[in-house]
UniProtKB/TrEMBL annotation:
It is found in: Golgi apparatus lumen. It comes from the Eukaryota. Residues 1-32 form the signal peptide. Residues 38-57 are annotated as: Disordered. Belongs to the CREC family. It comes from Salvelinus namaycush (Lake trout). Keywords: Calcium, Glycoprotein, Golgi apparatus, Metal-binding, Repeat, Signal. Residues 96-131, 135-170, 236-266, 276-311 form the EF-hand domain. This is 45 kDa calcium-binding protein. GO terms for molecular function: calcium ion binding.
Length: 360
């Protein structure tokens, strides 16, 4: 069954995803046909620096679903490592990574009893989520400056529209003059659809009383809706609209696990589709559908996606511990977290148990 994207922004993301899938599929080095491609998009799609600065990001650190409704594959690493994620990505030397992981364990172990409880992991997840938020605030300052060159502290939709079109290769002065004179812009259909989607999002970020201007805080909500209650609702509404096939503004299991449009070309692709369905089914039944009635409402999805929800953080902490809790004591010991380092950091450590106690 195909998953149809009704919004321009989702269609834009899905087009990029499918193009990247074809590239990866041809090389036979693919993890999942329908898997989210947000992280890969940044590396493979030749977007300009200006476009990256002023466009809402496809991927939101510390949020369980991507903007296109795909499950965030890196969520566990993001909420465990926070701003230290890049260090593990860039430094692949196992011994140094092991030392870093030991240092992190000692910080998570707040009461210094050499084990990590669910409450300690919850506290740590909330701290790391706050780190991602602060990073978003810092990036937003630069992005806001890019669209507010006169420095008056406010940006109109027309000012933003000019900058967006310039980032897409259109002549900035020509676009500014046409907008000022209410002339037809004559842009391609995809650009026009993305503009309309961005406009809707722009006015959603305009806090009451609506003045059609965004200040720096409102612009942060525009770029990072996960940190604004009002914009989080809007993001959830958009995701539900793209997945909801019968228009009841709720999601059934079959709607949530529906595959994106595409043909299964070989057994490998079929296996990948099976993994997609299995992963989303597990997430739907065990995590998102809080009351287990087989229906996910917008309220349930909003709670699930809220990065600052302490209840979610505790549940996530328990799930993360369960993955590596080999002695079944509901806590994590250093040996366990080192053994399952790939789950927590994305980096596999060799000889994880060697000299652990001496180094610690």
């Amino acid at each position: 069954m195909a998953m149809y994207c009704r919004t321009a922004w989702c269609r834009h993301l899905m087009a990029v995803s499918m193009a990247l899938f074809c590239l990866l599929h041809n090389t036979m080095d693919v993890h999942a046909r329908p898997a989210n491609m947000s992280a890969l998009k940044d590396k493979n799609n030749p977007t300009s620096k200006e476009e990256n600065e002023i466009l809402p990001p496809d991927h939101l650190n510390g949020v369980k679903l991507e903007m296109d409704g795909h499950i965030n594959k890196g969520f566990h690493q993001e909420v465990f490592l926070g701003k230290e994620m890049e260090e593990f990505e860039e430094d692949s030397e196992p011994r140094r990574n092991r030392k870093k992981l030991i240092e992190i364990f000692s910080k998570v172990d707040f009461n210094k009893d050499k084990s990590v409880s669910a409450q300690e992991m919850q506290r740590w997840i909330m701290e790391k989520t706050e780190e991602h938020f602060q990073e978003a605030v810092r990036e937003n300052k630069m992005s806001f400056h890019a669209v507010d060159p006169d420095g008056d502290g406010h940006v109109t939709w027309d000012e933003y529209r000019v900058k967006f079109l310039a980032s897409k290769g259109f002549n900035e002065k020509e676009m500014a003059d046409k907008i000022k004179n209410s002339e037809e812009l004559k842009v391609d259909e995809e650009t026009q659809e993305v503009l309309e989607s961005l406009k809707d999002r722009w006015f959603q970020a305009d806090n009451p009383p609506a003045d059609q201007l965004l200040n720096e805080e409102e612009f942060l909500s525009f770029l990072h809706p996960e940190h604004s209650k009002g914009m989080l609702k809007y993001m959830v509404k958009e995701i539900v609209r793209d997945l909801d096939q019968d228009g009841d503004k709720k999601l059934t299991l079959s709607e949530f696990i529906s595959l994106p449009m595409g043909t299964v070309e070989n057994q490998q692709a079929q296996d990948i589709d099976d993994d997609w369905v299995r992963e989303r089914k597990k997430e739907f039944e065990e995590v998102i559908d809080r009351n287990h009635d087989g229906i996910v409402t917008m309220e349930e999805l909003e709670e699930y996606m809220d990065p600052m929800n302490e209840y979610n953080a505790l549940n996530e902490a328990k799930q993360m511990i369960a993955v590596a809790d080999e002695n079944q004591n509901h806590n994590l010991e250093l040996e366990e977290i080192l053994k399952y380092s790939e789950y927590f950091t994305g980096s596999k450590l060799m000889d994880y148990a060697r000299n652990v106690h001496e180094e610690f």
